[in-house]
Amino acid sequence: MIDPADLDHCREAIREGSYSFHAASKLLPERVRDPALALYAFCRLADDEVDFGVHKPAAVLDLRDRLDLAYAGTPRNAPADRAFAAIIEEFDMPRALPEALLEGLAWDGIERRYATLSDLRSYSARVASAVGAMMCVLMRVRDEHALARACDLGVAMQLTNIARDVGEDARARRLYLPTDWLKDAGMDEEQFFDDPRPTPEVRRMVKRLLAEANRLYMRSEPGVGRLPLTSRPGIFAARHCYDAIGRKLARRGYDSVSQRVCTTGRHKLGLLGLSLVRAAWVSITPESAVIYAKPLPEVAFLVDAAAHPDARQPVRGEQVLNVFRQLEARDRAEQMGSPIQATA
């Protein structure tokens, strides 16, 4: 069980760091909400350290060590780490799921860029769908169809985040738009960083991201009906809070460069009400055949890991180990003051 003091710390971290999830979590039953808050605190704090830390490679390498300690049953003496170790033990959390998140953050640490939409879905699978699969585990759901739809929702939410943050990322010299899209538009990445503008070409890219997100939001919905009844409103709330960001962006002409879209507290309150209604409706309507859609190829490994927790899986595959070798090299270079080039 999670120590109450550690849980209070996690709750405050989410209250300050993730308004959308904090709002949605109010509709989750306590037995799911408390471990979910602890899970999100660990994941969110790790993500922030990579996004906003001065030394990204060092932050990811530190997270690797923290994850190893948590799975060894000897977590670092910090509230989020102790709470996460308690979750691992209580829910038999498959290690492949947080390992996938770690790999996605490692890609951030080496400033990886993504050539295609499929590449971007692969990144989203790691930093978002892995969390969605872990949420299913917290609900004691191992049904592969429900897991596939939860992973759809994770990718959709991450694509919405990326669409919203195009300008903010560019000013920080980060790029998540598919580089093939920029080439097709005749745009140079470095020039975009130097002078980010909401040109028609950039707006079209934001629109394309949101179109894919909308497709996956729709695909995800039948999965909610396979979740425990009391958890459905909270998941619908998360879906609608993120989708509302994309809808607001669309109303503003897909300009996420000169402004950063957010939803108001009153709007979130209305979305919570909508989520309660939709949760009741899904309980009395026939199940859609979309529930049986195959997982996205980019998330299939997450579905398999969560659905079959007893299967033997490597702690870290060679692909992940190679990323960590790059991170260690970048970390040494940063310490020595050497210039570092972004990794394609």
The helix/strand class is: mainly alpha
Content of β-strand: under 5%
The biggest beta sheet, please? none
Radius of gyration: 19 Å
What is the N-to-C succession of helices and strands?
HHHHHHHHHHHHHHHH
CATH class of the domain at 95-318: Mainly Alpha
Mean pLDDT: 89
Which residues form runs of ≥5 with pLDDT under 50? none
Estimated helix fraction: 55-70%
Intertermini distance? 42 Å
Q: Write down the CATH topology of the domain at 95-318.
A: Farnesyl Diphosphate Synthase
* Shape assignment: globular
CATH architecture of the domain at 95-318: Orthogonal Bundle
- Give the number of helices: 16
Q: Tell me the number of strands.
A: 0
Q: What is the CATH superfamily label of the domain at 95-318?
A: Farnesyl Diphosphate Synthase
Family: Belongs to the phytoene/squalene synthase family.
Pfam family, one: SQS_PSY
EC number: 2.5.1.32
Organism: Roseicyclus elongatus DSM 19469
Write a structural description.
The protein has 344 residues and is mostly helical. It has a domain of 224 residues: Farnesyl Diphosphate Synthase, CATH 1.10.600.10. It contains 16 helices and no strands. The longest helix is centred in the middle third of the chain and has 25 residues. The protein starts with a helix and ends in an 8-residue tail after the last helix. The mean pLDDT is 89. GO terms for molecular function: geranylgeranyl diphosphate synthase activity; squalene synthase [NAD(P)H] activity.
